[in-house]
Amino acid sequence: RYLLEQDFPGMRIGPEPTTDSFIAVMYGDSEGNIPGNALVVDPKKPFRKLSRFGNAFLNRFMCSQLPNQVLKSISIIDSPGILSGEKQRISRGYDFCQVLQWFAERVDRIILLFDAHKLDISDEFSEAIKSFRGQDDKIRVVLNKADQVDTQQLMRVYGALMWSLGKVIDTPEVLRVYIGSFWAHPLRNTENRRLFEAEAQDLFKDIQSLPQKAAVRKLNDLIKRARLAKV
């Protein structure tokens, strides 16, 4: 919502885990929703291979179309909120990690969102991050709602986040983490305003560069898949 600066059909934002569907937010001449079963038979959309994940997934997949300038150059896949607890994870009815892996292989950028108040990486989130193996160059991490804590707490939160990520992502290199508060309301704590603005600009530059690099990325993925097939 922050990137588009407007609501999109099917959007729900709240403090609880709201989104229960994969929503593909794409450009269209008029606002509207296309449900998953209709979406995977549309030859103009790149989602036909998703039909193998079954009806339980397709009932939880939709495309939101709206005439927005941002969506002329990028499309966004909004994934469901990550659950914690074994009970909820079993009842999804489809292989969540397999679906994430399918999308991860085809997208240009994967953005992991963390909340300054809820830093724990649940079992399902850990499994989800592990399903991105081999796509490490696409991952960016955003620490959101950072204005709700003061500078001292933010320093501790950032340290705790890096500690948690280090245990899940098995690389000696440090992931790029963008710190900010991505919503339309004014900042609650203005001590770190300059930091948040600089981080937001870095993130937007990263996203703006994606359309120019898309062709090279597709070539890169093609070579990667050819090499795997050869092996």
From TrEMBL:
Keywords: Calcium, Cell membrane, Endosome, Membrane, Metal-binding, Nucleotide-binding. The keyword Cell membrane applies. GO terms for molecular function: cadherin binding; GTP binding; metal ion binding. Coiled coil: none annotated. Gene3D superfamilies: P-loop containing nucleotide triphosphate hydrolases. It is a peripheral membrane protein. The keyword Lipid metabolism does not apply. One of its GO terms (cellular component) is early endosome. Its main location: membrane. It is found in: Cell membrane; Endosome membrane. InterPro entries: Dynamin_N, G_DYNAMIN_dom, P-loop_NTPase. GO terms for biological process: cilium assembly; endocytic recycling; endocytosis; protein localization to plasma membrane. Residues 1-211 form the Dynamin-type G domain. This is EH domain-containing protein 4. The lineage of its organism: Eukaryota, Metazoa, Chordata, Craniata, Vertebrata.
